[in-house]
Amino acid sequence: MTLNAQLYFSFRSPYSYLAIGRYRALADMFDVEIDLRPVYPLAIREPDFFERNHPNWLGYTIRDMMRVAQFHGIKFAPPKPDPIVQNMTTREIAEDQPHIFRLTRLGQAAARQGKGLVFADEVATLIWGGTEGWNEGDHLPNAAIKAGLDWEALLSEVEAEPDSLDAEIAANQSALEAAGHWGVPTLVFDGEPFFGQDRIEMVLWRMNEHGLAEL
């Protein structure tokens, strides 16, 4: 029997990137469907989040994400450009955000077609894997093609239906909170939330209890 889970994900979250490729590999190896549920990052939902954190938070997080990438052999580099326009000195979030809304809506449009997981993995690898100017040229169209999507149709859907896509994204956030968490990456399986890129082995353990089968 195919198992089902939901992965709550943000394109701005480095830990989401560090998790999604491994969750994609899990879905390729086992009889489980992992549905992507994109959400807007904390920079959009809670613009004062970075101001409220301890001064050491950012430095530690950067150190940790880099060593996680090294540990797992995942290509990792600061995004150029950042999906969120932010002054990293003052931590102020800019009002004009040219990337994150389109990215998240693209992810939701891909999720409508059951290809959110692979699309988000391809795009996150561009953003966090060292591709400078990931938002330019053929980078995003090629990511869509690799995910088995029609880029022009996907883009047209995003441009034509921003409000309905945003409503679905808001519903994703509500569902995440109803499941017992608020941050990303969080995978919810059988109503149980597993937060963080370091919970994948525990997810696999729990799925095995429910009869997870190899493909």
What does the model show?
It is a single chain. This protein has 215 residues and is α+β, with helices and mostly antiparallel strands. It has ten helices and four strands. A four-stranded mixed β-sheet has the order 2-1-3-4, with helices on both faces. Strand 1, helix 1 (14-29) and strand 2 form a beta-alpha-beta unit. The longest helix has 18 residues, at 162-179. The radius of gyration is 17 Å and the shape is globular. 35% of the residues are buried.
pLDDT averaged residue by residue: 95
Percent of residues in helices comes to 40-55%
The value of Rg in angstroms is: 17 Å
Biggest sheet, in brief? 4 strands, mixed
At the first level of CATH, the class is Alpha Beta
Q: How many DSSP helices?
A: 10
**CATH H-level homologous superfamily name:** Glutaredoxin
Topology as H/E string? EHEHHHHHHHHEEH
Counted up, domains total 1
Q: Tell me what portion of residues adopts beta-strand conformation.
A: 5-15%
The neighbouring-strand order within the major sheet is 2-1-3-4
Q: In the CATH classification, which architecture applies?
A: 3-Layer(aba) Sandwich
Low-confidence stretches: none
Distance between the termini: 11 Å
Oligomer: single chain
